[in-house]
Amino acid sequence: QVQLGESGGGLVQAGGSLRLSCAASGRAFSSYAMGWFRQAPGKEREFVAAISWSGGNTHYVDSVKGRFTISRDNAKNTVYLQMNSLKPEDTAVYYCAADRGVVPGTVPLEYDYWGQGTQVTVSS
């Protein structure tokens, strides 16, 4: 089993940056694909980015391409989401998730473990 904990959220002005971290417990972290999702009030949970177990493959939702970067450090059991050029529409609770599949998924149901989430608020 994997336990996940996000950190790094906060309040930032539009155009600013934040770096989210997701620390994982368990020795099997390096075998999981990892993803970031977000959920704004009144909206469904939305895929943001995913990375394969090796870090060699990444995938992003179109709205964050060129602004967000997902990465991982398997030695530290941590996955990151660097968010630049933030916009008010990026405001949401951000969740990291672990997927036992080989190919990182883009649908919440494909993920097996979830963190508790961290709030990101972007002011205009």
Task: Sum up the overall morphology in one term.
Answer: globular
The whole-angstrom Rg is 13 Å
- Helical run tally: 0
Catalogue the unreliable spans.
none
| Structural category | mainly beta
- Sketch the major β-sheet: 7 strands, mixed
Distance between the termini: 40 Å
What share of the residues lie within helices? Answer: under 10%
Q: How much β-strand is present in the residues?
A: over 45%
What do the pLDDT scores average to?
95
Number of strands: 11
Query: Which H/E pattern describes the elements?
Result: EEEEEEEEEEE
Give a description of the structure:
By secondary structure, the chain is an all-beta fold. The protein contains no helices and eleven strands. Strands 2, 4, 5, 6, 9, 10 and 11 form a seven-stranded mixed sheet that branches. Strands 1-3-8-7 form a four-stranded antiparallel sheet, with no helix packed on it.
Chart the SSEs and their pairings.
Blueprint: E1 4-7, E2 10-13, E3 18-24, E4 33-39, E5 46-51, E6 58-60, E7 68-73, E8 78-83, E9 92-99, E10 113-114, E11 118-123
Parallel strand pairs: 2-11
Antiparallel strand pairs: 1-3, 3-8, 4-5, 4-9, 5-6, 7-8, 9-10, 9-11
Task: Offer a few descriptive terms.
mainly beta; 11 strands; 48% strand; globular; seven-stranded mixed beta sheet; 0% helix; 124 residues; four-stranded antiparallel beta sheet
Quick synopsis:
With 124 residues, the protein is mostly beta strands. The chain has no helices and 11 strands. It starts with a strand and ends with a strand.
